[in-house]
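To: structure subgroup
Subject: Chain for Friday's discussion

All,

I'm putting the inputs and outputs inline so they're searchable in the archive.
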Amino acid sequence: MLLEQLFEISADRTPAKVALVTDRGRWSYGQLELAANRFANHLRNNGIRRHARVVIKLENGFESAAAILGTLKAGAVFVPVNATIKAEKLAYVLDDCSADFLVSDAEARSLDEPALIARNEDGESSTSWPLSQVFGAGDGSRPPKQAIDVDLASLIYTSGSTGVPKGVMLTHLSMLTALRSITSYLGMNENDVVLNALPFSFDYGLYQFLMTTALGGTLVLHNSLHYPVRLLELAQKEGVTGLPITPTMAALLLQIDLSRYRLPRLRYITSTAAAMPVEYIRKLREVYEHAALFSMYGLTECKRACYLPPDQIDKRPGSVGKAIPNTEVYIVSEDGDRITRPGVVGELVIRGAHVMSGYWNAPEETAQVLRPGPLPGERVLHTGDLFRCDEEGYLYWVGRRDDIIKSRGEKVSPREVEEVIAAMPGVAAVVVVGEPDPVLGSAIKACVVPAEGADLTPTAVMRYCASRLEDFMIPKIVQITTEMPILGNGKVDRRQLCSLGDSK
């Protein structure tokens, strides 16, 4: 079974049913299937080869959904990137994965409309076709299958501790394994109407599309997290049954009167990307007591690892539960020994078919996280995240072993932000840390030492970052300081930086 075949089964069964709802209209399974087939055949007619990479830089919508499916139908690998990605980072992704095609919005490529762009052997843009032309005409028949389930389906780029984005290699088998496990414990079915405000470049958002259409449900897309009232109005209008959120989204939602939006059809709420504060859980439960609340943990390298059954949410609201179906998780010490005693902190290890194949073109980084497992030749995922368990085996997230910051549900590499600020005229030194934030999960804080004679201000630093970084990577806090606190080993004391007074 291939990833796109689950969608095709839904399209064959209910071609007239609405698959997608966006602010631009409603699209049936049959319309999405036709557009995806035309996209796939267009790629095949223009020389795409099996396993080729197609980078998709679009906001969530009909075009991005059809491009993802069409890429899979062509036997290729889709690479979703954030629609707000900066040119330098986009260029890195294109070169790193040797992309054959780019699907891009009009704004970033100075085009009249979104287009499919072919790239030559030198990595330069050559021929381009408007997406309206690709989707609107051509061969709409379903192309023959080329891939098998151990072939790559997707590369999802995520920031690493080195500051260089890494491409997480996910096969059809790994993504199908995750999809089946998650939909089983959520109890999803063809009657679900899921509201997704998360970008497809974020695996949490991507899977809302894949899971909902695999079961024949309806996905409602909303492209902004900044207007919670609009999101709730949309949920009410469309009779939403499933609502995936992050702690950041929960914080925004809880700032308004939720009693005005009771959402009687809401069946479940899911939360991941960071630990949901217990107070958020309590308040959501008060308003949506009729909906099951699933607190979960996962990472791009395996999609999902744990979930807390809703009947446990009141008893242990700080827990992320136990392993998802068809998955084994366990905690190990620094020596690699399994920890079985409750309350002892160690690194979480994940074992299952949904674990990534590795990082694209990064064997050393891959070897650091994929290590020998219980069986000969097997590799298991060492998450770098610290956990403990209680007497009944329920897991609790303690912290991250590395310095990666999770802000607004996105992973941010401090080094990537540091490199941008360090290039700013007048900056002598910079260190970026994360601080706990009730809305963002973690707020990005930049501690900056000015060069002698320089007149740096927090506002100037933020503006500089805004022109060079994606919006979720821009520091919320900028601290101008005369010197950095240094540890005995010569490294900056990042914990002390977190306690310095803030300038915004």
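Points worth raising on Friday:
DSSP finds 15 helices and 28 strands in the chain.
The CA atoms of residues 34 and 118 lie 22 Å apart.

D.
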